[in-house]
Amino acid sequence: MRTASKGKSDAVRTRVAIIGAGFGGLGMAHYLKQAGFEDLTIFEKKGALGGVWRDNTYPGAACDVPSHLYSFSFETGYPWSHRFARQPEILAYQQHCAERHDLLRHIRFGHELTAARFDPARAIWTLSFAGGDTLEADIVVSAVGQLHRPSIPDIPGAEGFAGLRFHSAQWPASLDLSGKRVAVVGTGASAVQFVPEIAPQVDTLHVFQRSPGWVLPMEWVSPGAAVPYSPLSRTLFKTLPMLEALDRARVFNIAELLATAYNHGGAGEAIIRQLCLRNLRQQVADPVLRDRLTPDFPVGCKRILLTSRWLPALTRDNVEVVTDGIEAITPTGVRTADGVQRDVDVLIYGTGFAATDFLAPMAVTGRDGQDLRGGWQQGAEAYLGMSVAGFPNFFMLYGPNTNVGSGSIIVMLEAQQQYIVQLLQARAERGGVALDVRPEAQARYNAEIQSRSENTTYAGDCQSWYKTADGRNTNNWVGTMREFRRRTRRPDLGDFAWTPLRPAP
């Protein structure tokens, strides 16, 4: 494909446009190439691939899913150094996959999509990028994910803070916190990783907690999690691939058991709750602090925290857990609702991402001028998380209700990627058509998702990135990974409208 010019009038063309060069975009490109679709382009807004694993470089950044499952099924055998890989190694794995499967030549870096508009007369998508480039595509696959836009709370006075202030996903390079007074707002999955790293360095650390999370040590889920693989283990994994396959299957089935507990509650949830409470008693001796760190919602309502370092870090003499609400940020620190002022030098937001605001800030306009985000005012929804009625030849990876509370998103992504390839193969066999999911199919599927959500722990009384402000589950899949793979193994072509393309004038 020739290089796009800066002029908006000089559009270029690609058969398949993929937005984002993280795990979603890379895997999508691989499966398309494997099926013979070579005319594809991955558009990446930054200057390097990697998505969330490129952006999150905070101390201690790592995956809470074992590496053998948090990797592509088509690219196993990677020499992981840890059972739970660290951020640099995951990023290196993505680069390895891109090089080995000839994906780099398909990526155009520095292209941030701002708008996509469907032309029903030609069944073509026109893509507009920051900086003025435009392009036409037959098919658009969004692979921007759910965890790429930092969520920063609107706290009065924040702009006037005189010290250093940033989100954990925007961690400054070479930051030295030695001897600093630090405030951390938020106690989610990122904070539980970087707080234990910085706590020994800082003078004082105030951790502002809105609500605690359920915590299990990684070692209880996967023995040996805290130490690197031994040279012998790495040699055995390399020389006997079946060992990795068995470990991948073992981790998969453990994750499925946890998912069953989340999806159905009952005895499974109660057992995990008791394990978490036991861990809390073992790691936190102070009954007052232990009470502050005990959740009042079901396990799984918020993402469970797999770590053995978080709770001990909170018991350090220089660490304070603050549960009073923040009233304001002052030029010198943080003031809570009880009137107490805590002066700090650095303020870190560990407040996660705007996960329910799918595809933002892109503007996606479909058939008859439909605005995708406008149609999602009551919460995002999509058929199998991938297709939305009125937006022909447009697909999403890691879309609504495809996240997993327990398991590997890469397993879910590969199911979606292979499903989309099958749809595009069926489209090609029909000579190219406008492929649009039927509204009744989408409505039926979404009604099922919301009905099943009511019986899951995700519907518990907690605030999490799984749900909208009014409590609607828009992010999590409500079954097991095995069920999702079964339901996406073969597309039901009857759930789609196939409109023949008009001949070009």
Overview features:
single chain, 505 residues, alpha/beta, FAD/NAD(P)-binding domain, 14 helices, 18% strand, disordered N terminus
Please give a quick description of this structure.
By secondary structure, this protein is an alpha/beta fold. It is 30% helix and 18% strand. Helix 1 (23-34) runs parallel beside helix 12, helix 6 crosses helix 7 and helix 7 (241-264) crosses helix 8.
Describe this structure in words.
The chain folds into 2 domains: 12-149 and 354-500, FAD/NAD(P)-binding domain, CATH 3.50.50.60; 158-349, 3-Layer(bba) Sandwich (FAD/NAD(P)-binding domain). Helix content is 30%, strand content 18%. The longest helix has 24 residues, at 241-264. The radius of gyration is 23 Å and the shape is globular. The strands form 5 sheets. Strands 1, 2, 3, 4, 5, 6, 17 and 18 form an 8-stranded mixed beta sheet that branches. The protein has a 5-stranded parallel beta sheet with strand order 7-16-8-9-12, with no helix packed on it. It is an alpha/beta fold and 505 residues long.
CATH architecture of the largest domain: 3-Layer(bba) Sandwich
CA radius of gyration: 23 Å
How much β-strand is present in the residues? 15-25%
Annotation, overall tally of beta strands = 20
Distance between the termini: 24 Å
Q: Which runs of at least 5 residues are low in confidence (pLDDT < 50)?
A: 1-10
Which structural category do the helix and sheet elements fall into? alpha/beta
Summed over residues and divided by their number, the pLDDT gives a mean of: 93
Output the CATH topology of the largest domain: FAD/NAD(P)-binding domain
